Amino acid sequence: MQVTETLNEGLKREIKVVVPAADMESRLMERINDSKDKVRLKGFRPGKVPTAHLKRMYGKSFMAEIVNEIVTHSTRNVIAERDEKAAMQPEVVMTEDQDEAEKILAGEQDFAFELKYEIVPQFELQDVSDITIERPVVEVADEEIEDQIKQIAQSARSYETKDGAAEDGDRVTLDYLGKVDGEPFDGGKAEGANLVLGSGNFIPGFEEQLIGLKKDDEKTITVTFPEEYGAEHLAGKEATFDVTIHEVAAPQDQELDDELAKKLGLESMDKLREIVRDQVQGQYGQMTRQKVKRSLLDALDERYQFETPEKLTEAEFNNIWNQVTADLERNGKSFEDEETTEEEARADYQKLAARRVRLGLVLSAVGEKAGITVTDEELQKALGEQLRRYPGQEQQVMEFYRNTPDAVNALRAPIFEEKVIDHLMEEVSVNDKTVSKDELMADDDEEFGSSTATGGDDA
């Protein structure tokens, strides 16, 4: 087998591989001889089928198998022998000429093909001990916990039927039938539905028009679906609802005591406060984690500037762009609504894609050097989370991941990334800074994450 480099330009590589016809014929004869004792043909005793007859019957199919094996093994071996790492699966280019292909399968012509790929750029990992990260921390006030418990109490309180008109905060039991242009629409009908007025659970303007109604009252109300409503056929449309009230019930006072906790399945109010505090601290902890990670990635981005593989960056850009355009379409917006143009947006997101790829490569290298891996247990946990998202379809989801290696890698990548971030956080300096809830929850201008498409155990 002859291996010749035909292109070495930046990160791009092209390699020509030629397997002489004599070698192809030799491999074919080995395959035929190996199959003699396995093939069963009518009119021949086992092991007595003439070689020429086997070649005539199975030569092309055997040679096709040999071609596939050569391409698979050569691609991996050639790159490994060159001490290179392909950024993505190499492109294999073979002849498209039918006559040439027939001659190759017949063992009458050399088998030649090209490998085209980009390599992962080489860079030196830098010491990060001089990086200082500010970690925003919110101190959870007792008042916030009490406010959360009051909201819980409101959802757990009971209602008592009353005479008279419905007021804000009352619960009404009603039937309704929604129509657009006089025609009922899917999902616009319910019987015996419960609705707490002022909860904001229905279309804006719906609940307000029920205030003042009494038991057995009937009314037709008119509302307009929001422009960003999830169902496209209803978004922005005016609709009428024929409403019948069956009951009006007033909320009963709910004391913040152990009885409330027991109603929620807990032994005491102290336990409820403990759980609520843990939940609130957990929510703030997630936001703190995002801010700290952003700061760390920003610091790494300043230190690492190198060319990224073109196709890998293009793939990342396409992922981002598809999401951006889908969001715009779903919300009925354009680039002009976002005070930009498509051309400017493309340029910005191409920079973002390059950053994500570059940081993904850096994190991959850091993780590899530190010996970070994703365990089977961690992967199974991630898979379990996916299964819970699709109740009743667990078998199909399992089959999908079993047959789709890229999907498994997509589960592994974020786990790997978070473990690398944890590793780096132990090496940098971290200073805690107490901030307000609003400061912590404030959105960054843009989401500059990283891509670990080449990271993880398969890096």
What attributes characterize this protein structure?
single chain, about 450 residues, alpha+beta, Alpha-Beta Plaits, Chitinase A, domain 3, Trigger factor, domain 2, 3 domains, five-stranded antiparallel sheet, four-stranded antiparallel sheet, 12 helices, 11 strands, about 45% helix, elongated, disordered C terminus, rotamase, cell cycle, cytoplasm, cell division
Give a description of the structure.
The chain has 459 residues and is an alpha+beta fold. Helix content is 46%, strand content 19%. It is built from twelve helices and eleven strands. The strands form three sheets. Strands 6, 7, 8, 9 and 10 form a five-stranded antiparallel sheet that branches. Strand 7 and strand 8 form a beta hairpin. The longest helix is centred in the middle third of the chain and has 35 residues, at 269-303. It is elongated, with a radius of gyration of 33 Å. The two termini are 28 Å apart.
| Unreliable segments of 5+ consecutive residues | 452-459
Rough shape? elongated
- What structural class do you assign from the helix and strand content? alpha+beta
Q: Into how many domains do the coordinates divide?
A: 3
Mean pLDDT: 89
Following the backbone from N to C, one meets helices and strands in this order, namely: EEHHEHEEHEEEEEHHHHHHHEH
- Number of DSSP E strands: 11
Beta-strand share of residues: 15-25%
Specify the helix fraction band: 40-55%
CATH architecture of the largest domain: Orthogonal Bundle
- CATH homology group of the largest domain: Trigger factor, C-terminal domain
- How many angstroms does the end-to-end distance come to? 28 Å
CATH topology of the largest domain: Trigger factor, domain 2
DSSP helical segment count: 12
Radius of gyration: 33 Å
Determine and state the CATH class of the largest domain.
Mainly Alpha
Largest sheet: 5 strands, antiparallel
Function: Involved in protein export. Acts as a chaperone by maintaining the newly synthesized protein in an open conformation. Functions as a peptidyl-prolyl cis-trans isomerase.
GO molecular function, one term: ribosome binding
Protein name: Trigger factor
Subcellular location: Cytoplasm
